[in-house]
Write a structure and sequence with these properties.
16 helices; globular
């Protein structure tokens, strides 16, 4: 977890800083076109590659025949996507009515193919809980890609700066990953292993399809209904949330599947581990996302500039969704670890259907309405995501709420305090307002959390100390 946290923080800071600089040199339409083109890679990752990866990681133990077979399946899928993208790019551009989209799609298809080649070695290292080489690979490739993108953006290359950034990350990441992973694919293909991969992956893939629409239906609807410029503005608001969510939650959730898979034979121990990791994550992410919603105006103004001010409302609503998403990730990991991927498939399908219908009605009222609908749906339907947890583990609804209660209560108290605090400071310049809000909010949250959730504070202290020692001993 320590190395996974270092990777998430380092990579997301680098990506966000790169995005921050590039956004000052390209217009909203360019950002919108690239955001739509990147949906192809996300679709491929979530529907095809995630199923292959999950089938390897959930195995829990090394299986050379399974790894070889999975590699050739992913490589073939990547090659097919590459060919299809080149053939259909112009048709997609004409259908979406966004000039330049076809060219961007063709270039980014190379990165998608490299992603297919990387899925097995990345799963191999994850299964072995070897997070250090993954952290090194992600950090270096992100840094190099960021430097390439910034240099081209400053030089006036516009949309090609964003394309080159993504290609550089893919190429450098591939080189480092294969150098770090001892696994090498052999010319072997087992039909039996292929059936295992496809049988397990089909549920993950269908779930990925639903999750893809859950995560991106807002951008797709806005892109088709409101145009490239609106998509670019919405992307800025959503990108700030994405960076925060990946920094604060993805590091722990990335470890969840292999850990839950190893503990599934001991349900009481797994239940205890699940509640502790949910509680620890919520104690960090809930106040962070609530605070992000409160300071969204100053955040967007200071980091992106006044021309992106419309993104603040988008960020405000989506930040409240991020607080829920950060802990909901573990529910999905648990279902996969316990061999119930079809349960997540049904849940994701329900969410996707509700999202699409809701967005088509909300888009008429603008980008902020779409973001608000996205968040409202998440809170209303979240109990459906918790239901499998209480069925699969020896715990109840009260146990789940008890794990979340300290951080939720402390965050609500912090939000009420900051509402009055900011009202009293109305008229302050953005920088003083942002700094004073963050400092006051953190202080209030820690005081209240210490009163209502002392055990969580002690757990986080021990975790930080143990993680620091572990990183130091392996450096």
């Amino acid at each position: 977890m320590a190395w996974s946290i270092l990777e998430s923080w380092g990579v997301q800071l680098l990506q966000f800083l790169t995005f921050l600089v590039i956004a000052r040199y390209v217009d909203a339409t360019m950002l919108g076109i690239v955001a739509m083109a990147l949906l192809v890679g996300q679709w491929f990752q979530m529907i095809i590659l995630s199923g292959i990866s999950a089938s390897l990681v959930s195995k829990g133990t090394a299986d050379a025949d399974l790894d070889d077979t999975a590699f050739w399946i992913s490589a073939a899928a990547g090659a097919l996507l590459l060919i299809a993208t080149f053939l259909l790019a112009d048709l997609v551009e004409r259908t979406a009515a966004h000039q330049g989209l076809g060219m961007v799609l063709r270039w980014l298809s190379v990165a998608n193919f490299l992603g297919a080649l990387n899925v097995v070695p990345q799963a191999w290292l994850t299964r072995a809980l070897l997070m250090r080489p993954l952290a090194t690979r992600s950090t270096i490739s992100t840094l190099v890609g960021g430097l390439v993108g910034i240099a081209l953006a400053v030089a006036g290359y516009g949309v090609m700066a964003l394309v080159a950034q993504n290609l550089a990350v893919a190429v450098i990441g591939t080189i480092i990953l294969w150098a770090a992973c001892p696994m090498r694919p052999r010319l072997r293909f087992s039909r039996e292993k292929a059936r295992d991969v496809l049988f397990y992956g089909r549920h993950v893939g269908v779930t990925g399809a639903a999750n893809f629409f859950n995560a991106n239906a807002d951008i797709m609807v806005i892109g088709l209904a409101l145009g490239g410029a609106a998509t670019g503005i919405y992307t800025v608001g959503k990108r700030a949330l994405l960076a925060a969510n990946l920094m604060l939650a993805r590091a722990l959730s990335r470890v969840a599947l292999p850990v839950f898979s190893q503990l599934k034979g001991d349900p009481p121990r797994l239940a205890k581990a699940f509640l502790r990791i949910v509680s620890a994550t919520s104690s960090i992410t809930t106040p962070a996302f609530v605070g992000l919603a409160i300071v969204s105006d100053e955040f967007i103004f200071l980091l992106f500039g006044p021309r992106w001010a419309a993104a603040a409302d988008v960020m405000r609503y989506l930040s409240l969704f991020g607080a829920l998403q950060a802990i909901g990730i573990y529910n999905q990991s648990l279902m996969l670890a316990m061999g119930k991927p079809q349960w997540q498939t049904w849940l994701a399908g329900i969410y996707a259907l509700v999202n699409i219908v809701t967005f088509f009605f909300a888009v008429e009222y603008g980008m902020a309405a779409v973001a608000a609908a996205f968040t409202a749906r998440a809170y209303i339907l979240y109990p459906l995501s918790v239901w499998p947890v209480v069925v699969l583990l020896p715990l109840g609804w009260r146990d789940y709420w008890k794990a979340l209660r300290p951080s939720v209560v402390a965050s609500l108290v912090m939000a009420v305090f900051l509402w009055g605090f900011r009202f009293a400071l109305a008229g302050q310049a953005p920088i003083p307002m942002l700094l004073s809000t963050v400092i006051a909010g953190a202080a209030v949250y820690m005081i209240v959390l210490g009163l209502v959730g002392r055990t969580i504070v002690v757990d986080m202290f021990h975790f930080a100390r143990a993680g620091g020692k572990r990183v130091s001993s392996t450096s």
